[in-house]
Amino acid sequence: MTHLKSLFKDYEGMSAAERVAHRSLSRGGISSVIWVVTERCNLKCIHCYEGGRNTPEISTEDAFRIIEKLNDAGKPLTFISGGEPLLRDDIMLILGKLKDLGFRVILSTNGTLVNEEVATKLADLGIDNVAIPLYGPQQFHDYFTGTPISHDRVIRALELLSDAGVSLTIKTVVARSVLRNLDYILEVASRFGAKAVYLCDFIPIGRGRLLKDEIVSRDEWRNLLNRFIDEMILGDKYPEIELDIGLHPSAAVYVMEELRRRGYDVSEAENKMKRRRLSVEGRGFVSISPTGDVLLSNYLPIKLGNIVREDLRLEDVVKNPLYRAVGDSSMLKGRCGSCEYRELCGGSRVKAYVYGNDLLGEDPTCLKQ
Ligand code: SF4
Questions:
Q1: What is the SS3 assignment for 33?
Q2: How far apart are CA 247 and CA 347, in angstroms?
């Protein structure tokens, strides 16, 4: 997650979340967690990295044990994700317990199960942000999710949540066909007062392994970032919307170098990046699977232990030799290993593994010129 406006502009949109993450990270512990509470889903998105997996789920009681362990680890910023989390019967109990303990909670849902009752409940619980995917106008979105009327349900969910006063993020994937819909996605985000648009780079894994033509090239990524620089970083289009880039840490390096090339002082952004490496794997981030496995990333099958079945504390995960190696920029190889930005950026460890089968290898999608 890279908040471009927070880095390069005096922008406060998502800074509360970042402050929580920084506080926890400065204690040397876990700062953010993506907890996949279920892999069940009612959509069939053609790009889904989980690809319709359906591993068994832990009980409510065990979910509460995980929450206690997250609490002991210092209440990391917690993303509740899936699958579709609202398919769990006990999801409101899980969210309620997290909020009762004072967690900052972001719920990632496909939006199709949000009705008036759900929207009111999420508002009453004080969920800090609800992130909902949108891939384009009705016909395209329904094609991309493999599910008719999913677009209309997303728009309805956005209406209900925004009326209930819930803070929103629109998520999308940076795939070739989706990029053509970017204006529409930004317009919808603005219409419903979304705080951020999260743009996650497409990786051809899971169901998406057949979509290699959807991979966005370096030049296409650079063009996209140039547009963001002109319109939303230097310009003032959509002033209320933060741009959050996923799975592409060198995007911020590209923006920094481009602004510097244009004569802007980027020292403040550089200092911010020095405080927390953009590549989060091995740096205060873990994912938790539906069975309680603690993973290096929700995109990778690399297990660090099980938080339900084993006497494992999250604080101990950061001492795992593999975890430490991935977080140690001096261990990186190839272009990332010799890069002057390896401490700030670190390259996508997920893409180094997916494309090169080496967690410490170079990020083959690097955008640095
Ligand atoms: S070479 Fe690696 S560390 Fe350097 S900017 Fe590119 S992705 Fe980041």
A1: strand
A2: 9
Cα(50) to ligand 1 centroid in Å equals 27
What residues contact 271, with CB distance under 8 A and at least 6 apart?
A: none
> Is the CB of residue 368 below 6 angstroms from any atom belonging to ligand 1?
yes
In tens, the pLDDT along 270-280 reads 999 998 899 99
Q: What is the pLDDT of residues 226-245, one digit of tens each?
A: 999 999 999 999 999 999 99
Query: ∠ at Cα 102 (98, 106), nearest 5°?
Result: 55
pLDDT tens sequence across 177-192:
999 999 999 999 999 9
Domain locations in the chain as residue ranges:
2-356
Contacts for 139 with CB less than 8 Å, ≥ 6 apart = 151
Report DSSP state, residue 234. Answer: S
H or E, element range at 201: strand 196-201
Residue 169's SS3 state is strand
User: Is residue 344 in contact with ligand 1, taking CB distance under 6 Å?
Assistant: no
Residue with the two structure tokens 């990029």? 179
Q: Is the shortest distance between the CB of 125 and ligand 1 below 6 Å?
A: no
- Say yes or no: CB of residue 346 within 6 Å of ligand 1: yes
Mutate to test the pocket of ligand 1, among 258, 330, 368, 369 (most ligand atoms within 8 A of CB): 368
Beta bridge partners of 170: 132, 197
CA–CA distance, 171 with 133 (Å, rounded to integer): 4
Q: Is the CB of 366 under 6 A from ligand 1?
A: yes
Omega before 83 within 30 of 0, i.e. cis: yes
Question: Ligand 1 centre and the CA of 201: distance in Å?
Answer: 16
The CATH number for 2-356, chosen from 3.30.1490.20, 3.20.20.70, 3.30.750.24, 3.40.50.1260, is: 3.20.20.70
